[in-house]
Amino acid sequence: MLAWTIYLSFAGALVEALLPKGKPGVARWLALFVAVLGLLHAAGGFIQGIGQGRIVIVDAPWVPSMGIHYLLAADGISRVLVLLTGLAAVAGILFSWNVDRRTNEFFAFYLALIGGVYGVFLSFDLFLLFVFYEIAIVPKYFLIAIWGSTRREYGAMKLALYSFVGSAMVLIGLLAAYSTAGSHSTSLIDLAHANLPVSFQMWCFPLVFIGFAILAGMWPFHTWAPTGHVAAPTAASMLLAGVVMKLGAYGCLRVGIGLFPHGLDAWGWTFLGLGSWRDVFALLAVIGIVYGALVALAQTDFKFVIGYSSVSHMGFVLLGLMTLNQIGVTGSVLQMFSHGVIAGLLFAIVGRVVYDRTHTRQFDELEGMYLARRLPFAAWAFVIAGMASMGLPGFSGFVAELQVLIGAWSARPWWAVVAGVGIVVGVAYTWRALQKAFFSDRIPTPDEHPKTGWPDLGAITWPEVTGVALLTLTSLAVGLYPRILLDTIEPAVKALLAGGGQ
Amino acid sequence: MNYADLFRVTLPETILEVAALLALVVDLGFLRKAALNLRLAAAAIVGIAGCGVAIWSMSMQGSAGLTYGTGNALTLLGVGGYIAAAQVGILVLTALTLLLLTGSVFTRHAGEYVAVVLMAAAGGLLIAAAQDLLVIFIGLELLSLGLYILTAFAKSSAKSAEAAMKYYLFGGMSAAFLLFGFSFLYGITGSTNLHQILFELHVGSLYRATPLLDVSVVLIVAGLGFKVAAVPFHLWAPDTYEGAPAPAAAFIASVSKVASFALLIGIATAAVHVFDGLPGIPPAPQEPLHLGFGGPWMVLLVTLATASMVLGNLAALAQISVRRLLAYSAIAHAGYILTAVAFFSYSPLSTNAILYYILTYGLTTIGAFGAVAVVERATGSDRLDAFLGLHKRNPLIAAVLLVLFLSLAGIPPLVGFWAKFNLFAAVLHVSAGVVPFTLVALAVAMSAVSLYYYLQVLKRAYVMPAADETPINAHPTTIAVLVAIAAAVVLLGCFPAVLQNWIAGF
What we know:
The structure holds two protein chains of two kinds. Chain A is mostly helical. Chain A has helices at residues 3-18, 24-49, 76-94, 103-122, 126-135, 137-147, 152-181, 188-192, 198-215, 224-231, 234-259, 277-297, 302-323, 326-358, 363-366, 371-374, 376-390, 396-411, 413-437, 462-480, 483-497, and strands at 55-63, 68-74, 266-271, 274-276. Helices cover 72% and strands 5% of the residues of chain A. In chain A, helix 13 crosses helix 18, helix 14 crosses helix 21 and helix 17 (376-390) runs parallel beside helix 20. Chain A is globular, with a radius of gyration of 22 Å. In chain B, 73% of the residues lie in helices and 2% in strands. Chain B contains 20 helices and two strands. The two termini of chain B are 26 Å apart.
């Protein structure tokens, strides 16, 4: 059932590419239909998989001479992330209902990207995973470069090159692991049992981990994220923050930690208090949390605030991975889901609901527009999304970040302390953005104030309402009853941390 | 030497020569007064039929190669195995470049063009099979002379003449280097047979006994480096790719490369199989994992590979002519392949990986030149800006370009990814030491660089606004060939085992 998510998306992309031009309505409904069908399959697979471990979906030899299999499987982590992808895909299409330039091509690239993302989460063969991972690079480039806004060609090229450099590092690591293991199988499960030498894991782990973490927005390799997010059209920034950054984090977990567990062992010596790769990456994650939050506090562009907040929130994901304990890693996976939903919602409000109507994202211009009165829907949606993003109880972000912090505390207390500072700053930048964009009490200057009443900003359309409702309710549902996801994540994390038995 | 054997082994070459003459007869004898399009089509059909018959005739070659005859059981011309795979590849790619001829206007000499192409292809077949220095040299000259003529074939274009002149001068010099190197090798070992020479070098006390060997290896590498356009012997490539008529450039970029790398495979295979290939000498107790001419051979190849990867990719970044960009990317690709020639496996792993790479690269590059030629004919230029708004002017050609360029950059699931993947896996399989690993890491890193310049072209085709939105039309045959090539690149990439099994099956 889950495998159909991949095939449906690629088939949809192909049909969209072949659609005659000039029929945006058909292209939209077709894309929505395909995405909803994908979501239904993802949800079906999720429900089917409750209480089960890893399920093998397809296993067929693909490149027999090298032992590569077309091996699709799903454990709890995969199922949760596939569900997230389905949600993000549907929401993204709802919020790009107003794309009317080259609509069919837009949705063709969009669905191809979604297909690649589904594929990564479902691959249990090392090279199959890599193939899907790279498939996702090219559509991102075109989505941003063609339909984007601020400095789109720069942002798109930067993202494409960062991704490709990251995947080049991963490829080098994978080739090395393949030739070192000497096994005739590239299945993740077999390779995890290959007992790679510790000295090999020590240098291969950071290579692969950084390669994936570039896409997860790890400081200092995060600089593609704000520019890419800002340049991207709404749906693409929702996907970038919602699922593409998760590809990186997922790769760190599944391939980095899964295949090279000893890469995290202590070096046996310390340098500036860092005694292992685990310390190094945890430090980078913590820096990312605080740095992203502080930079977000200083932005004048509404979308850059959200862009940097993504860097901060993804820091929690990476920190959770580095705790290496059950609760921390579980929290990390839950944070991937939670951030995917919440960041998607924030980008949708900023990019679609506000920017497409006001045509500006600068706070000093938005301040004079009385948006809270003129766009009450946007204001209240942002209040809710902001609360979720700050990590208020009742929303998914709270549960996830709490678990990461508990995990971090039991690993190294100071990690949790510094990350906690990041949360406080997070409240501050969200508050600031909320106040400046919607609830400002600055009197408009005379030339800002129109003589003949405020121009109509356009009514809120049904796709926007549906999309906001979908994402908000998901975040609330997970926040109020986290067990619906945790019951699926926990056994899978346990198996993965136990080593080998991915 | 037995002439019946000679005829049996060189059957495909003979058929190509006959087809070449036939093309001349048909064109000059019967179609003298006909329209140019008809003449081009007729000549191309004769040529393609010749390639088809030549492929078919390979089933009658038998399995034994041509030997020197009485008292000397060494092979002169090989048959089967990687040789057959390379030869079929050469013939198929030649046929594809001939298909691109339809609709061309660069020449009025249809019959002559096809005849020269077929003769050059016969030279390519000969190089792929040759196991003897003299036959190698004759084959190389047959191929090269054809290529010089083809480069100059657009008689009314000064660029074409200039490119041909440069190509010819460089080529003549490198042929002299090669011949000089060969003569030293003969002087050292007293044989012109590859297997005999390598055997003498390894077993005899001659190995490293004389600096003359080093000199000779340097000269040979210079000569062969010219053929595959490896840095620093690459200077002809950008000019030739830019100046030659498009079908000729496609031929140079694909068929000539396949033949030259088949020759390198032949040399490397002879080197690693030095202990089990000679009649009358028992195989060595331990199979060598990889051997070459010893030190200088590998050092030189590694140097050439590194320089080609780095310089090819970096120079391509600065190009504004798409043809020159393709030339520098060809140099970079040659660098990747040379890595695998330097670290060559005893098992057929490396052979298969190199063949896979060069055949798929040849296919892709023919398509790329075809697509560039379509744009060039409509806009009169191959500058990057000629591609502005291509997705509106001809969506099909734009899509073909997208697939082919992404494949060249090595994005999965296109075939170019698997080519690189096989190649690098083969290198690491031979040795996972510091040098091969660094080379592979460099190659992968450089492919990341290459994405930038391929995207520069695609960006203009898809992203940037068109300056001129008049549709671009192309001959239906050209479109069909290009779409077929793009489809093959996608399908072979989705089912990589198909081509691997085909190559391994010979």
